[in-house]
Design goal:
globular; about 70% helix; mainly alpha
Length: about 220
């Protein structure tokens, strides 16, 4: 087993206390409108989210950091292009927790630099960038880092959907198996995109995420 494999498993484990269990990243608004209500309809939403928003924001940010774009520059770009307030705040809340956890268990000069940017107010501390800084310091190859991050996000969202819709545990596992192909496709697409593609996401997803801010009853923070 490669030296980074166990560390990567720890970083993507659902038990990592970043607060992912508290976020739907917009699918709860679809539940409220009756558009997501079962295994099939959630699978449609999940495929759209992975193929669009997750690919063109988080995955692309990870790739650009591996390409050598300064983390402070990418942090500013992510803050600007994550238009829905709750999704932006979710990225920052989970990112700051990951920075804190990483500083204790996977310290590195790159991680210390990013934490200093955040502490000084020159950065927000976004989740995909915190993840990428840690995985790059552990010498995780880009392709593996991308796939791991994307699938960890899919896993947390599916677990949240199992509780919220609700779905059975077997349905959750079927969804994860189907989503594996979407994750592979998203990682491949992110490796080919350009800076002009950064933030090119579906307006429908963003509008639904904005509606969630004023939803009367909800289980999730986003």
């Amino acid at each position: 087993m490669s030296g980074y494999q166990l560390a990567l498993q720890q970083l993507t484990d659902s038990a990592l206390p970043t607060g992912a269990f508290a976020h739907s990243l917009g699918f709860e608004a679809y539940i409220e409108r009756g558009l997501v209500h079962d295994e099939e309809s959630f699978g449609v939403w999940l495929a759209a989210f992975v193929g669009q928003q997750l690919t063109y924001s988080d995955a692309l940010a990870i790739r650009f950091l591996y390409d050598g774009v300064p983390v402070g520059e990418l942090d500013s770009l992510l803050t600007a292009q994550l238009l829905p307030r709750q999704v932006r705040e979710a990225s920052v809340k989970m990112g700051n927790r990951l920075l804190e956890i990483g500083a204790e268990i996977f310290p590195s000069p790159g991680l210390a630099e990013y934490r200093e940017l955040v502490a000084s107010g020159r950065g927000a501390g976004h989740q995909p960038l915190a993840f990428a800084v840690i995985t790059r310091s552990l010498s995780v190859p880009l392709t593996e880092a991308l796939a791991a991050y994307l699938f960890a996000t899919v896993t947390s969202l599916t677990q949240n959907a199992v509780r919220a819709i609700p779905l059975g545990q077997n349905a959750g596992q079927r969804l994860l198996r189907k989503a594996a192909d979407d994750v592979d496709a998203a990682a491949e697409r992110a490796s080919q995109l350009t800076p002009d593609d950064f933030g090119s996401v579906s307006p429908g997803l963003e509008i639904s995420q904005m509606r969630h801010e004023r939803q009367r009853a909800r289980m999730f923070m986003s």
